[in-house]
């Protein structure tokens, strides 16, 4: 549940940034510079995966 909330907060914060601004996204032990749009897309995918795992646990 904490993981889902963290992704929702991250998406909200990214949406508040100006679209032309660059952000740094951690991948493994490295940070990569990306656009806000690609960072939001990545966070949304992670949110969907976390929700799917949570739903799977609820069904078990």
UniProtKB/TrEMBL annotation:
Molecular function GO terms recorded: unfolded protein binding
Pfam families reported in the protein's UniProt record: Prefoldin_2
Family annotation (Gene3D superfamilies): 1.10.287.370
InterPro entries: PFD_beta-like (IPR002777), Prefoldin (IPR009053)
Entry superkingdom: Eukaryota
One GO cellular component term: prefoldin complex
Swiss-Prot/TrEMBL GO biological process terms: protein folding; response to cold
The family this protein is said to belong to: Belongs to the prefoldin subunit beta family.
Protein name as catalogued: Prefoldin subunit 1
């Amino acid at each position: 549940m904490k993981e889902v909330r963290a992704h929702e907060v991250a998406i909200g914060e990214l949406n508040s940034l100006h679209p032309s601004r660059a952000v740094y996204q951690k991948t493994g032990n490295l940070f990569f510079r990306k656009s806000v749009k690609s960072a939001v897309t990545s966070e949304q995918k992670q949110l969907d995966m976390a929700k799917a795992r949570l739903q799977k646990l609820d069904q078990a």
